[in-house]
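During the reporting period the student researcher (J.K.) took over the structure-prediction task from the postdoctoral fellow and processed the backlog of single-chain submissions. One of the processed entries is reproduced below for the supervisory committee.
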Amino acid sequence: MNARVARALDAVTAERAGDALLSVRDLTVRFRLRGGRTVAAVTGADFDLAAGECLALVGESGCGKSVLASALLGLLPANAETSGSALLDGTDLLAADEKTLARTVRGRRVGLVPQSPAAHLTPVRTVRAHLEETVRALTRTPRAGRRKAAEEAADRAAFPATHLDAHPHELSGGLAQRAATALALIGDAPLLLADEPTTGLDRDLVERTADELRRHADDGRGLLLITHDLTAAARIADRVAVMYAGRIVEIAPAHRFFGTTGPDHPYARGLLDALPERAFTPIPGMPPELSDLPEGCAFAPRCPRATDLCATVPALRAGVACHHPERPRA
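J.K. obtained the following structure tokens:
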């Protein structure tokens, strides 16, 4: 990609991000445990998501991605303490009470593809019953048309019609994932949170599911794709946000992140280098426990560029939080 094309794509990305559908500022989540211990699940997350945009939130398991999504929907356990703001069409999702979230946000303004779909399906109801009930609750479809609408929703998520009358315990992990995706798409919510939506799917279904989620964004809605599947992210994302140890350490246009330019943060570059189609070189060491984070940059113990500067936490500036980025920050 030449520099002229890259600049043009950067301009399009900036224009999309400038008119935010969702604006998150300083989102922080702490879990208080017995004995006075604290889990720093998310710290100071800042990002915007525009209508028509897909932002992929990536990182190793346990870095805080799913906690961030749960915070936006008020689905955290009682021992969670949340601060910051998350504005969606004038509503602060972090400050909204349970009644507001249940009646006007979940499903209607924010759709969710959950990470553990089986836990979100009622065991005694068939997939068809789930879909028809969701159609009834979220759309104005007349009773006579709900069966067809449910079948169309299933088809959008590549859920086979032959399994519509199955109960959740009769589904494989991949089928449960597709059922959850179908349910999330029914309300055509302005914002869709897809938490590991391709888990348990083979590559063909990964691509079909990713493409359907992309169409959701192309129709003028926002998509926050939470995933460790970098191939799926590369397929549909406009921008990429990388999380490590509860912090967003880089936000970049997808074409730069996955292209020849590559990311600026050493951790983000390590994620790409670990892919089989690239260097297939894993990042050395293990992520820190969120209940026992090191002082300074949490990635420093694993980073080949670490110096004494890394004893302090780097601020996210010019899209990267690193004292030694690949390219110097302006």
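The committee noted the following: Residues 191 and 241 are 17 Å apart (CA to CA).
J.K. will present the remaining backlog at the next meeting.
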